Amino acid sequence: QVQLVESGGGLVQAGGSLRLSCAASGRIISINTMGWYRQAPGKQRELVAQIIIGGTTYYADSVKGRFTISRDNAKNTVYLQMNSLKPEDTAVYYCNAHINSMTAASSYWGQGTQVAVSS
Length: 119
Description:
With 119 residues, the chain is mainly beta. It is 0% helix and 61% strand.
């Protein structure tokens, strides 16, 4: 059974910073793409940032220059450093990973962590 466990969300004032973490566990052989999505109330879930196994990254235009995604392959963990936070960054943030396990290759989701940015 593969699981993704997120941590690091919370309430912060505009201009502040938060760091999200997502650790994958289980019978994992390898992890390809890891990423962060977010969903604000009344809106569709959107891709925020993504990092592939080789280190190439992708960022949504709305977070470029403010957010940094990184991964520790030895720990099967992905991070999202969020700086200069804005009220419009308020959302539930979900970790996603494409994992090759002992039983299957599949896309997995974390349970979500709330990020709230006050003005």
